[in-house]
């Protein structure tokens, strides 16, 4: 039996005393589907794809930067720590919302 993990709680404890978790899709295909395809299914079904493609081209780089790049950074840090090739042992690796709304890798 195969277990698929596609949702995770990104709660970093004791960070700014926040008690709210944040659930995110961790499957890149589902994340792409719900971000770009599902909201435009009607247009796609009727063959009106130019507006969808324009929307995709406009927002894809931000989408990749927001999710994929941060995931690669977290994975790289964890690999380096496992290989004892990181200058310190991080207590946790993740991202959070600052007061200005930007996510930062920590």
Radius of gyration: 17 Å
Q: How many domains?
A: 1
What count of helical segments does DSSP give? 3
Q: What is the N-to-C succession of helices and strands?
A: EEHHHEE
Which regions contain 5 or more consecutive residues with pLDDT less than 50? Answer: 11-15
Describe the biggest sheet?
2 strands, antiparallel
Structural class: alpha+beta
Lateral strand order in the biggest sheet: 1-2
> In total, how many beta strands?
4
Mean of pLDDT? 77
The fraction of residues assigned to DSSP E strands is 5-15%
Please estimate the helix content: 40-55%
Oligomer: single chain
State the separation between the terminal residues, measured CA to CA: 35 Å
Inertia-based shape: elongated
Task: Produce the secondary structure layout.
Layout: E1 7-9, E2 23-25, H1 28-37, H2 41-45, H3 50-82, E3 95-97, E4 103-105
Antiparallel strand pairs: 1-2, 3-4
Explain what this protein looks like in three dimensions.
With 106 residues, the protein is of the alpha+beta class. The protein has one domain (7-105). 45% of the residues lie in helices and 11% in strands. The chain contains three helices and four strands; from the N terminus they run ββαααββ. The strands form two sheets. A two-stranded antiparallel sheet has the order 1-2. A two-stranded antiparallel ribbon has the order 3-4. Strand 3 and strand 4 (103-105) form a beta hairpin. The model is unreliable at 11-15 (pLDDT under 50).
């Amino acid at each position: 039996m195969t277990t698929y993990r596609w949702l995770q709680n990104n709660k970093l404890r004791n960070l700014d005393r926040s008690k709210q978790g944040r659930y995110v899709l961790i499957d890149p295909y589902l994340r792409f589907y719900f971000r770009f395809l599902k909201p435009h299914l009607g247009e796609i079904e009727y063959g009106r794809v130019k507006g969808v493609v324009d929307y995709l081209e406009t927002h894809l780089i931000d989408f990749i930067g927001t999710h994929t790049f941060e995931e690669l950074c977290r994975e790289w840090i964890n690999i380096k720590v496992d290989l004892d090739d990181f200058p310190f042992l991080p207590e946790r690796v993740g991202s959070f919302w600052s007061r200005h709304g930007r996510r930062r890798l920590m």
